[in-house]
């Protein structure tokens, strides 16, 4: 199985360099010395996962370690763990076989031997005996050199560069004790394809970055990557990891997810989308209307129409072109082995210029984004929609034991909310199936669906399980609204709720306190927007009757009422009790079920 196509290790790479790394199409990237702040898992805009073990209040001196997992294998990632400021790990399960990727950053020569011993002890403790395959990637700050002729150690191969130092001997001793192969030493390559680090000015070049594996046949085709310019003094080390079967088979048996509808792209082709829907619903006119047919029709039509892009003149972005030209020049200079003094100075200046222009571009994009939000008269909360989604990386069970396993975290959440919201009341068996009111309910009209409710619904909200939002329903205009009204009238007539309305995507939002405590999260249900529209229609019709029967004391959540008088009265009572020294008790109650799942 081709478990991980490319495992790339790199050093001193900021977030703005990830676009350069993705040109290699890796499945897992390990980064050291990122100097990022915070710790946790984040889902990026492209669907990939970023696990960041950066600086925190508890460990302010850490230089940062990162795992970037591609979206194709994120569903097979079981857990991320931080073992120390210098060691993190990632567990991946592929076709029943467990693989543990460990990323490590060893102390430099500035540290004492005692720190080195602590590092290797922590690294040994991080190796999970339950995982069948273990691969360690990282900067070990050690030179192993070339294997000597009289050496009988099977864990190091015959190929390499340079001379071995004391730290290199310690690394080899660690590999022998834990039965780890130094994989790149078994591959014969040109001398220029072994070094992974160069000193400032390019005078010295050493091999100090390695990929270690418990199985020599697992980590294959170890190579040094030079074609990606990332502005680092280290070069990337890439390995192809294979475990018996192919990853493509996993992709075929993977559960299919509904296609995501790009609303922005759909708005560009709105006339075509409207025409296609009209033709589709004309064919379905003789069938009984149903929400399931509506969802399927909209989803398929949107997917087909979104592929038809309208040709527009591309704006020439001179800023991107300048950065691209500078990166190309930096790449050309980097490939030269024997640089002149002028070329070394030029390489240094080009490297600085690329970084400055990237930062300037990032600032400009942030500024343009803020201006666009202000022009739309949106608040600061609008910016949160475009942030990366933070994932729960650790959770405590009922006994207080921490777990980082994704399946166990899901089970903890499921058990907690099932216990919290499950009803203990018996199901009634003598419900009246027929309404005592003999009057027929007036049918919903297309105008009522659109003007009274759909236009009043909030825009750009997260979709439910059907992946259809109110924005998409509005783009469908007359064909969709007419079919929606027919569906709602059929529901009123049959008195049966569609099965798809009984499902909801539940997400939990962190409130405050310890992130590992499930009680510090609040559940939010993402319901189908067509279901929300139907309930709005019912509420609109019953609103006047409900308001007329509400007591006068009820001021909250009522149109035309204010709680100012109630607050003023409460303040008066508090002042009088303080003035006359009278006992007063004020009860403020909160409930765990204030958020409906």
From TrEMBL:
Coiled-coil annotated spans: 309-343
Pfam families listed in its UniProt record: Exo_endo_phos_2
Location of the Endonuclease/exonuclease/phosphatase domain: 100-237
Ranges that cross the membrane: none
A single MF term (Gene Ontology): catalytic activity
Domain of life: Eukaryota
Keyword Coiled coil: yes
InterPro entries according to UniProt: DNA/RNA_pol_sf, Endo/exonu/phosph_ase_sf, Endo/exonuclease/phosphatase
Keyword line: Coiled coil
Protein name per the record: 14-3-3 protein
Species whose genome carries this gene: Plakobranchus ocellatus
